[in-house]
């Protein structure tokens, strides 16, 4: 039986279905409840298997499960064990609870303030946990990013609420959380990862060999992360307000049951590469570095870790 390549995905990530299966597999929320010892054992097995020194009798299913745990809990660049709440496997349960709360508690200023504070604290933790490890961020930069994102979210939320209360139908107030989340993501992520923009991130050829550092790749990666974060929360935060408005009109008593409302919305929320020719044009220094490192043999495409 052929050996498994533990450094490559089990699914074909060149197709949408393959990428979907890969990320669903590695972000399985059930891995959140496993102990650190269990996760470190998985990492040890992966390291042993990579060297061909795994314990006798190790099965392919055990290796695949270890790959799953390793992918879900350890940073892809540094190999360090990530904090519990910042892992991608915690995104579904954590995001469900916070988004459900934001959609349910939006009517008063204290509710908006508390929900946005908790949401931006969670986002800052996730962004820090999944940053590009080759571009370290100082405590000062983290603080500035956190305060800026929280402030921008509050300004957007309170500004939209004030404006829509006076000039728009009541249902528009239900979109206050989405407006705040979208604005905060546009501020938080670039600030949290500003070192990557200033210094560039490592780019590799198709074999994983580092060929240089690119600021253009950093900008592209961060832009993709911002758009994906907004897109991921859009279905629930844009469609649920319409549904909940109809439910409250049909059952007026439901509007007074805030805890039930928050629980229902939480559950419903849960249901829902760069070419080198581009580098030569926009980053001539990087292109020259690639030529030098590869003795004139410049790879057609380069790859980078955009972060999550």
From TrEMBL:
<dbReference type="Pfam" id="PF03820">
    <property type="entry name" value="SFXNs"/>
</dbReference>
<dbReference type="GO" id="GO:0140300">
    <property type="term" value="P:serine import into mitochondrion"/>
</dbReference>
<dbReference type="GO" id="GO:0015075">
    <property type="term" value="F:monoatomic ion transmembrane transporter activity"/>
</dbReference>
<keyword id="KW-0496">Mitochondrion</keyword>
<keyword id="KW-0029">Amino-acid transport</keyword>
<keyword id="KW-0813">Transport</keyword>
<protein>
    <recommendedName>
        <fullName>Sidoreflexin</fullName>
    </recommendedName>
</protein>
<dbReference type="GO" id="GO:0005743">
    <property type="term" value="C:mitochondrial inner membrane"/>
</dbReference>
<keyword id="KW-0812">Transmembrane</keyword>
<keyword id="KW-0472">Membrane</keyword>
<comment type="similarity">
    <text>Belongs to the sideroflexin family.</text>
</comment>
<dbReference type="InterPro" id="IPR004686">
    <property type="entry name" value="Mtc"/>
</dbReference>
<keyword id="KW-1133">Transmembrane helix</keyword>
């Amino acid at each position: 039986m052929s050996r498994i390549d533990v450094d490559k995905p089990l699914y074909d990530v060149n197709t949408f279905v393959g990428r979907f299966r890969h990320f669903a597999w590695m972000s399985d929320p059930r891995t959140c409840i496993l102990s650190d010892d269990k996760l470190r054992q998985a990492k040890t097995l992966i390291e042993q298997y990579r060297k061909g020194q795994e314990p006798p009798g190790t099965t392919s299913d055990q290796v695949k499960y270890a790959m799953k745990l390793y992918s879900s809990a350890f940073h892809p660049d540094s190999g360090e064990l990530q904090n519990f709440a910042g892992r991608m496997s915690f995104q579904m349960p954590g995001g469900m609870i916070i988004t459900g709360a934001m959609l349910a508690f939006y009517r008063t200023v204290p509710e908006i303030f508390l929900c946005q504070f908790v949401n931006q604290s969670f986002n800052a933790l996730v962004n820090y946990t999944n940053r590009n490890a080759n571009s370290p961020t100082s405590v000062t930069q983290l603080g500035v990013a956190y305060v800026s994102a929280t402030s921008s979210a509050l300004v957007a939320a309170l500004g939209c609420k004030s404006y829509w209360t006076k000039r728009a139908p009541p249902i528009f107030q239900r979109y206050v959380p989405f407006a705040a989340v979208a604005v905060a993501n546009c501020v938080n992520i670039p600030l949290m990862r500003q070192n990557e923009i200033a210094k560039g991130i490592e780019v590799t050829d198709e074999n994983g060999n580092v060929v240089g550092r690119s600021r253009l790749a950093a900008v592209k990666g961060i832009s993709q992360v911002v758009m994906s974060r907004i897109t991921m929360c859009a279905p629930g935060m844009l469609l649920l307000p319409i549904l909940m408005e109809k439910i409250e009109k049909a059952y007026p008593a439901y509007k007074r049951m805030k805890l039930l409302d928050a629980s229902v919305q939480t559950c419903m929320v849960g249901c829902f590469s760069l070419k080198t020719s581009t580098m030569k044009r926009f980053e001539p220094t990087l292109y020259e570095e690639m030529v030098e490192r590869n003795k004139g043999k410049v790879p057609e495409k380069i790859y980078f870790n955009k972060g999550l």
